[in-house]
Amino acid sequence: MSPSSELDRHDAGLAAQYETFPYPERTPQDESKRLLIGSPSHLREIDYWVFKAKRPRHLPLRVLVAGCGTGDGAIMLATHMARSERVGEVICLDRSSKALSIVKERAAVRNLTNIQYVEGSLNNLTALNLGSFDYIDCCGVLHHLPDPLATLRDLVNHLAPGGGMGLMVYAPYGRTGVYMVQEALQHLAPLQDSPTSRLDIAKRVMRTLPATAWLRMNGNFGDHLSGGDAGLYDLLLNPRDRAYTVPDFLELLDAAGLEASCLMEPARYNPSLFLPDPKLRARLDVLDWKEKAAIAESLTGNMATHVAYVVKKGEEQTPPDFMDEAAIPVMREIPGIELAKQMLPNHTLPFSFGTLVVPIPLPAQARGLLPLIDGSRTVGELADILSSRGVPKDKFWGIWKETFSTLEQLNRVLLQSPA
Known about the structure:
two-stranded antiparallel ribbon; Rossmann fold; SAM-dependent_MTases_sf; alpha/beta
């Protein structure tokens, strides 16, 4: 079989998969009782990690969700924009009409009017004449494409000046066991079979999967294994599925003319958090952040994806000084009072990096400080309040520096953009 015909066969299989089993499996009526939250494309993350809290919130935000699937990222971002009265629009692009129909139904339940829908392929993006975008989401897509680099370069060409992207790709070590089962199913459920037939075979394999199978020992796939037919199919039967180590991912970004403004959550890629040995930390201190990130991935072994916010090379901005009295901190999602309740008596915050829980030390005074962060109080106002409670201002600045520096790297406390 020629390379081009093999390419067409896999592409046709991918198209058939997402038309038969739109992913992720979603029920539109559920939108009336919950909003799914994640990264990338959380509005406060975009404001901070892409625009570094410098882009005024009143400016229109034009967004492309490139390969939106059934719409988790698009619905989240469009809802955030509507709730905060942010002007702009979200363009949902996908070649699956079935997936787009689900996004439309979900948006209708939420009465969202800031979404538009385009049926088309990322393999032919330029022909769609979509214009330029301040922000592009491409989550869980690149690793399924025939030429990820070409598509990523095409997306870069659709970025407006100063714009950025949120990306997610699969990572290999946290997906240990997946590719072994995929290889077996290539023989047992060949691509030429119908999607429903292939799924039946995969279910039969999973019912009798040996206890020694690595997939049984891997706890990173709750969303896929409990995600109905679409989740199981996407995990085990996707006809084109590759994974990127941190160095692979950064190399892809570099080749596309991009650089990471952060890997999410940044602390997850800091091996010092789980290597307390002083001699090891001394060796880590002399390494650059890319080497540290690669070490963290190799040692933890549970990173099933990499999420990054990226900008064009040379365009990354410096965020405002969080020690400036006029800076305004904001909780990313969890209210400060709730985050403070999670602190243990020893003043550590148990933080989950996937299946790995790491104790993160915080100042004892963070318990009283976090509930005061409301997205409108300045750092100076926080200092005044704590001063009235007996914390001298000279001591406050040390407390604030440690608290913000730690929780920013956990993606829990960010800075507010100007109105």
